[in-house]
Design a protein that fits this description.
This protein has about 160 residues and is an all-alpha fold. It has helices spanning about 10-25, 30, 35-60, 60-85, 95-120, 130-155.
Length: about 160
Amino acid sequence: MKYERFEDLPVWQAASNLAVRVFTMGDRTALRSHRSLRDQVERAALSVSNNIAEGFERGTTNELLTFLYIARGSSGEVRSMLCVMDRMAAFSDLKSEISDLRSLAESISRQLRGWAQHLQDTPIRGQRHVTYKSRQIDQARRDRNEFLRELQEISGKPG
């Protein structure tokens, strides 16, 4: 499936959900008294969705890859802070929520890794590099492949 907007990407939606849930958790009393930790985990959580969006909008595969890896790093940063919080007595009442957020951040990281691996294996350079001529060549290639497929069906020979 081809996505036209970053808001439609399942990984961006999950990352956005992560940020909202981290900000919601930040409103709790236990985290309010640890301002620097709260600020850092909120910034890192927001960075995940922001970097996915920025990479998507850049227009080249290489730039998208760069921002996907930055987003993945931010997801790791969120997980790291959640691991530390899980070990602190001050956050014992948030154990379940911390665990859920760690799982979500881990899932996002896996999705980003999979997307990045897919992009590394593709010859597509990105939307910014698409020209009228490259669109024509691509359409001619699709037309040729469709024609060959129809020929094979007519001849009864497997492809």
